[in-house]
């Protein structure tokens, strides 16, 4: 039976592999420039002898290659040796150049390519492989390129701010039907939870936005379910789950909703203060009458893109 830590690692691995299964044709050229998939499915290999993660037929700068991409979410100082074994086996089988890539979603100690094998001063082997850390990639670059297939990975990247990620959620919702959206939300949530590139304040803001926009998804997240169950157990132990206490709980829920509304209002005012400070008084008056957090969140991004004060006034006045 897998230990809790191993189970979490397997969940991340499985979620990432599923993303490549759905979006590989678009994703791989973003991650490995100059490449193009010849087939959009993982090459069938004998996994009793070769346990490579993702293997594809590709073109690299117009020439046929094999791509082997390993998704690494746990620490493994000797992963390059395993990768070297895959490289040799794949080259033998397909008689093509092999591109070997390790993708790290989260920051950790990683091997530094190239690999060199020495016999004293004699170089016996020189082998190049690539290491890609999502935490070294710029979220804004993929967002500006409308790389939708990469959007659920943006929380793990550099420059992943709350406004950018919240707008990303809106864009994903417009692009994908519910079932696919659930898969993207699952990855997005997991990246957000383990990301070391986002501030705690921004992480909280994004989580709150997800709760407002996608309550149907959040209610299925194991960590959230566990927190709710723990709270209920604590309440039962204290004898607090009674009719009057349930009323208080509903009051607390209403209070939480008011908190979300105030947070959304504050985000609007922060953008106005930064971009159009002379309009802050007008904005405060307008925002006070707005009661839909989702509309306020959209207003944040509309104001960020407003070309001038006239456009900003129009946005604030028409909400």
Structural summary, described in words:
With 319 residues, the protein is of the alpha/beta class. The chain has helices at 4-31, 79-94, 139-144, 162-175, 178-194, 200-213, 215-218, 222-237, 243-275, 280-288, 293-305, 309-317; strands at 35-37, 54-60, 63-71, 98-104, 115-119, 122-127, 130-133. Helix 4 packs antiparallel against helix 5, helix 4 runs parallel beside helix 6 and helix 9 (243-275) packs parallel to helix 11. The longest helix has 33 residues, at 243-275. Residues 245-254 have low confidence and may be disordered.
Topology:
Layout: H1 4-31, E1 35-37, E2 54-60, E3 63-71, H2 79-94, E4 98-104, E5 115-119, E6 122-127, E7 130-133, H3 139-144, H4 162-175, H5 178-194, H6 200-213, H7 215-218, H8 222-237, H9 243-275, H10 280-288, H11 293-305, H12 309-317
Helix pairs in contact: 1-5, 4-5, 4-6, 4-11, 9-10, 9-11
């Amino acid at each position: 039976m897998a230990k809790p830590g191993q189970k979490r690692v397997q969940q991340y691995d499985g979620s990432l592999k599923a993303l490549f299964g759905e979006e590989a044709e678009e994703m791989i050229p973003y991650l490995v420039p100059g490449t193009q998939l010849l087939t959009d499915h993982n090459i069938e290999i004998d996994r009793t002898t070769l346990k490579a993660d993702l293997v594809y037929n590709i073109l690299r700068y117009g020439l046929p290659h094999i791509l082997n991409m390993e998704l690494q979410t746990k620490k493994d100082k000797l992963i390059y040796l395993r990768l070297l074994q895959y490289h040799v086996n794949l080259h033998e089988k397909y008689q093509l150049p092999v591109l070997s890539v390790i993708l790290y979603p989260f920051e950790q100690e990683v091997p530094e390519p190239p690999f060199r094998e020495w016999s004293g001063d004699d170089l016996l082997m020189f082998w190049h492989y690539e290491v890609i850390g999502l935490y070294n990639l710029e979220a804004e670059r993929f967002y500006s390129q409308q790389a939708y297939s990469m959007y659920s990975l943006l929380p793990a990247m550099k420059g992943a701010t709350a406004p950018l990620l919240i707008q990303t959620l809106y864009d994903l919702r417009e692009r994908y039907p519910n079932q696919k959206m659930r898969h993207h939300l699952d990855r997005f949530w997991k990246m957000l939870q383990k990301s070391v590139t986002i501030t705690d304040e921004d992480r909280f803001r994004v989580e709150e936005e997800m709760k407002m926009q996608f309550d149907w998804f959040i209610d299925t997240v194991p960590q959230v379910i566990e927190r709710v169950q723990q709270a209920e157990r604590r309440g039962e132990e204290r004898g607090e789950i009674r009719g009057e206490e349930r009323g208080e709980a509903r009051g607390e829920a209403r209070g939480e909703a008011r908190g979300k509304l105030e947070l959304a209002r504050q985000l609007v005012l922060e953008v106005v203060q930064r971009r159009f400070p002379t309009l802050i008084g007008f904005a405060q008056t307008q925002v006070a009458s707005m009661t839909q957090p989702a509309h306020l969140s959209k207003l944040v991004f509309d104001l960020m893109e407003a070309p001038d004060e006239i456009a900003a006034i129009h946005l604030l006045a028409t909400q």
